[in-house]
Design goal:
single chain; about 300 residues; alpha/beta; Metallo-beta-lactamase, Chain A; seven-stranded mixed sheet; about 20% strand
């Protein structure tokens, strides 16, 4: 049986949102913005969210993590499918793929240091970032195989599930910024993931600075897109009094506005569209808010920890 035939006969693509929040989580440990204040007081209109990560499988037994949040241990504890199920040491996590070098996407790797084998996948540039920081040497090379993945290359994420990485407009991680910061460049520093499973097409893009014609063409006709939902409006953090940067400066599209993601997707044929990587200041996190209703009326779902998405 050919690889293509084996992919078609495998089960459906299963995606699990492990963490739906942007960097800092929701509530953020030191924040009292409107959403965080509601969360600290256990208001039923809001739900806590950990930092951005998803898991993928086609058989429910073998899983890949896409991004590895600092809360990965908590996420595993809340996801039975990711927990050890036999022997003295076991994990169903076969590979970990990271889409950029942001702390909220690589910090959890330090928690996976207990000598269980898995593949660590990233672009050559991100692999170099990890290699240059000796703290990641806690990942024993006898167990953790680091594999550089070229943009556009079809690779095996799990048995029966292939994927491709592609550059999206973004920027380098905050701690890697120099005196001059390029915003919106397309390189190995910020990538999206295309899951290839038979005739199914799904995408995970937790960070994106702009919608380009090439990206729109790629996403058109997709079964599922999980897309950067960091901010509702570009100056949101400044208006909330909790930051000094716009969303554009941080390398993120806003949801609303003429240049926002809702408008950018309006004419695209995407069967299911889900916002992920949502900042704690974003009013869509409040059920019943005007922003939440506007997003839902435009056909968008708001991701939450534990959300199950099967294609």
């Amino acid at each position: 049986m050919s690889l293509a035939e084996s992919v078609r006969t495998a089960g459906s693509l299963q995606l699990r949102v492990l963490g739906a929040a942007a960097g800092g989580g929701s509530p953020q440990w030191n924040c009292r913005c409107e959403v965080c204040r509601l969360l600290w007081t256990n208001d039923p209109r809001v739900t806590p969210r950990t930092q951005s990560s998803i898991a993928a499988s086609v058989d429910g037994e073998n899983w890949a993590l896409i991004n590895c949040a600092p809360e990965v241990l908590n996420q595993i504890q809340k996801t039975p499918a990711l927990q050890p199920s036999w022997g003295d040491r076991h994990t169903p996590i076969r590979s970990v793929l990271v889409t950029n070098a942001d702390v909220d996407h690589i910090g959890g790797l330090l928690n996976l240091r207990e000598s269980s084998p898995f593949r660590l996948l990233a672009t050559p540039l991100i692999q170099d970032v990890l290699a240059q920081n000796p703290i990641f040497d806690v990942l024993n090379p006898e167990f953790v195989e680091r594999e550089p993945i070229a943009l556009g290359e079809t690779f095996t994420l799990l048995e029966g599930l292939e994927a491709r990485l592609f550059a999206v407009p973004g920027k380098t991680a905050l701690y890697l910024e120099g005196d001059t910061v390029e915003i919106g460049g397309e390189s190995e520093s910020t990538v999206g993931v295309e899951f290839v499973h038979g005739d199914q097409r799904a995408y995970y893009i937790p960070g994106c600075a702009a919608m380009t014609p090439a990206l729109a063409s790629r996403l058109d006709g997709a079964d599922l897109v999980l897309f950067d939902g960091t901010l509702w409006r570009d100056d949101e953090m400044i208006e909330a009094g909790v930051g000094v940067k716009t969303g554009a400066r941080m390398g993120h599209m806003s949801m609303s506005g003429d240049d926002g993601s809702i408008a950018a997707f309006a004419d695209l044929d995407v069967a299911r569209r889900v916002f992920v990587h949502i900042n704690n200041t974003n009013p869509v996190l409040i059920e019943g808010s005007k922003a939440r209703l506007a997003a839902e009326n435009a056909g968008w779902e708001i991701a939450f920890d534990g959300m199950e998405l099967d294609c």
